[in-house]
Amino acid sequence: MRLPLSPPVKPMLAKAVHAVPHDEGLGYEPKWDGFRCVVFRDGDEVELGSRNDRPLTRYFPELLEHLRAALPERCVVDGEIVVVTDDGLDFDTLQQRLHPAASRVAKLAAETPASFVAFDLLALGDDDLTSTPFRQRRATLEAELGTGGPHVHLTPFTEDPEVAEDWFTRFEGAGFDGVMAKPLDQPYQQDKRVMWKVKHQRTADCVVAGFRWHKDGEGVGSLLLGLYDDAGALHHVGVASSFTAARRRELVDELAPLREGALEAHPWREWADAQAQAQADGKMPGGASRWNAQKDLSWEPLRVELVAEVRYEHVLSGRFRHGARLVRFRPDRTPESCTYAQLDEVAPAELSAIFG
């Protein structure tokens, strides 16, 4: 490729804030829930780069022709790969696309085709645009991309914080993470947290059904969380992690009494079996990691007696989309009271509001 920017390009990042900022000189976009992707196009050559330098091209072959049809002949575009369903963005289905077998990739490309949403233009022709203000890059992107095409879209954009507040509420039901705020006069700064992201935050009381050791082997790395459905089955909904070193060691002692005899009547006891884990496709606590096959996801069961209040962002397919944060343990709550009914349900926003 002969482009003014060569792969890999480190995407510009964002700092988390708790409310939509209303400062002067900001532009706003919905925050997409997908795979961050920088597209490099030089004529017929198209390469899809990820934020961690992992090439995505082989996993999304159906996007290449759409990108050739919609993007300028020579360009570098920052955006997001998503899978869109009638109910919104489907990150679980998107994750399934990262499969090592080419035959499986081809099958999924036909069954669950992905889309690319563009939100920044880093290079056009022989010009490196990263030093120009975002306002100018956005205007050029609008002019070059126009209405996009099948499976290639331009992200909505506004300079009105009230519209951004409306997006923050309305688009959540379609699976969006929140809202991005970007300084209009800012150049593109690779790997720098110079934007802002506003994400939904809620709390829920969950059963603590097990834990994983930290990679240092000396403390608790994460707590395995569960919620009961209407039939009384306990479902694994995610983990709580990000403990300090001191707190990891404290948790070992706090959880020790619950380890004795934990597996005998544990609702997830069959998940301790290696064959069952291999067939679970990453949906049980000990299942293989889709992102890192070498990562140890073995777990230690606990008697189902402890309740924890955790902070989470949003729920996707019955699980916490990102890792939760431990707020406190709740000795005043019974495990049976920790049900899906306590989670916020938001009616899906119509995707036509995003895709025009």
SSE layout and pairing:
Layout (H helix, E strand, L loop, with lengths): L12 E5 L8 E6 L3 E8 L2 E6 L11 H9 L3 E9 L1 E2 L2 E2 L1 H6 L5 H10 L3 E10 L2 E2 L5 H12 L6 E3 L6 H10 L7 E6 L9 E7 L2 E12 L6 E9 L5 E7 L4 H11 L18 H5 L21 E13 L2 E2 L2 E2 L4 E5 L22 H4 L1
Parallel strand pairs: 1-12, 8-10
Antiparallel strand pairs: 2-11, 3-4, 3-5, 5-8, 6-7, 8-9, 11-12, 13-14, 13-16, 14-15, 16-19, 17-18
Tags for this model:
D-amino Acid Aminotransferase, Chain A, domain 1, five-stranded antiparallel β-sheet, single chain, elongated, alpha+beta, 2 domains, 356 residues, OB fold (Dihydrolipoamide Acetyltransferase, E2P), 33% strand
Structure description:
By secondary structure, this protein is of the alpha+beta class. The chain has two domains: 13-199, DNA ligase/mRNA capping enzyme (D-amino Acid Aminotransferase, Chain A, domain 1, 2-Layer Sandwich), CATH 3.30.470; 202-260 and 268-342, OB fold (Dihydrolipoamide Acetyltransferase, E2P), CATH 2.40.50. The protein is built from eight helices and 19 strands. The strands form five sheets. Strands 3, 4, 5, 8, 9 and 10 form a six-stranded mixed beta sheet that branches. Strands 15-14-13-16-19 form a five-stranded antiparallel beta sheet. A four-stranded mixed beta sheet has the order 1-12-11-2. Strand 6 (84-85) and strand 7 form a beta hairpin. The longest helix is centred in the middle third of the chain and has 12 residues, at 134-145. The two termini are 33 Å apart. Residues 286-295 have low confidence and may be disordered.
